[in-house]
Amino acid sequence: CTHALCSQDVVQPARCGGAGGTTPNGAGNDSILPASCSPAAEMLKNFYHTKRVGNYLIGRKLGEGSFAKVREGLHALTGEKVAVKVIDKRKAKKDSYVTKNLRREGHIQQMIRHPNITQLLDILETDNSYYLVMELCPGGNLMNRIYDKKRLEERETQKYIRQLVLAVEHLHRAGVVHRDLKIENLLLDEQDNIKLIDFGLSNCAGILGYSDPFSTQCGSPAYAAPELLARKKYGPKVDVWSIGVNMYAMLTGNLPFTVEPFSLRALHQKMVDKEMNPLPPSLSSAAICLLKKLLEPDPNKRPNIHQVMADSWLQLANKNTGAPYLNRIHIEEINHTVLLHMTEKMTYKHSEVLSAVLTNRACHTLAVYFLLNKKMKRLSKEYRVRASLLTLEMQFQEKKKGEKQKSEFYQTQWRKHVDKLTIPPKQTPIYLAVAKGPSKEKKHRTGEGPSQADWADL
């Protein structure tokens, strides 16, 4: 990389799950995919970045947490943008919990595959940093949407909460509790759909062998369930409470429980006493009813995620939402054009690509497949849109041409009709033309009226 500010981190091949080491060659000139699927050198040159890690250029900062920063990245082989979560291992060492569970987020995300959860693509590790490469959500953070609009309309909130509920139900069915559901962790993709991120505090005790007994206080206090704040043992219903806080935030632009000055004890008491901040009077009774169910302080009375899905406000009771979303892609869903391109033009082994994709194993092979597949779909859609616009333009031009020809035809016919008309010369009216002699003039001068013979002539 020749960027003036660019340095290159040395990836440790044995510790990055297939992300490091040798990389197959890029696409040749006789690429199976369209030429536009190959990254242009100009694109790589113009992408601002400060370092290169493996096959990724690491660019501007998108977000920041206590131990990690999320940066925009560019995959050098496909030219597609990604999001890269960079965890500072030196800072993480100061917190024993983070150090102990540093790799848990990557493990959990490889277990999960859902349209409303960000897809983990690759994992890399250096001496000082741990990198999680994920799909980029160009729609940005939902928090910014709420800031811009002050609050969301009920119909828009309904869409987002519905998608969040589906994502959480998928996690709970896999034995995963997120524990940090908040507006900042909800991103929007190019189709304006929710994408859940940040599994750093997620727990799946008993599945991956972690010893956390579901009693650790974690997450943002404003979104945390009362039992979590009270340091009591808790279960998946803490996510249900957080969904309620998110729903309230979308509908009002505020949080349901606030105290001044801030105090965890006072905040917890407000939650227990159900002293919720006011709601807009325009909300439907169904929305208010669901909100109160979600923000029930007693976990025994609070509905579980499957009971939430049955609520009428979410309108999830149809055949399309009944079938669970599979965590593993089926072999029939494989894009064989991308598979052929990777095996024949990028020298990947057929079995290697299938293994990575079918097991959802985060590695460079999965990243290449996912990014090429996404790029191909986007370009196909753009092509269809351009073709549709071109068709409409041609139809408009044809219509315009037809109207012009029709107008010219009528004008020609009118001229022909006019040319055939014969306009007689100007003539004096008969009643003025008769009796022009002196006798008539004399009669008029003497005041005598016309004789009977004159009237007969007229």
TrEMBL record:
Annotated ranges, domain Protein kinase: 56-314
Location of region: Disordered: 435-458
PROSITE patterns: PROTEIN_KINASE_ATP, PROTEIN_KINASE_DOM, PROTEIN_KINASE_ST
Binding site for ATP: K85
GO MF term list: ATP binding; protein serine/threonine kinase activity
EC class: transferase
Top-rank taxon, per record: Eukaryota
GO biological process, one term: intracellular signal transduction
Reactions catalysed: L-threonyl-[protein] + ATP = O-phospho-L-threonyl-[protein] + ADP + H(+); L-seryl-[protein] + ATP = O-phospho-L-seryl-[protein] + ADP + H(+)
One matching Pfam family: Pkinase
GO (cellular component) term, any one: cytoplasm
Entry's EC annotation: 2.7.11.1
Keywords, alphabetical: ATP-binding, Kinase, Nucleotide-binding, Serine/threonine-protein kinase, Transferase
Family label: Belongs to the protein kinase superfamily. CAMK Ser/Thr protein kinase family. SNF1 subfamily.
Full protein name: non-specific serine/threonine protein kinase
UniProt source species: Cyclopterus lumpus (Lumpsucker)
Lineage: Eukaryota, Metazoa, Chordata, Craniata, Vertebrata
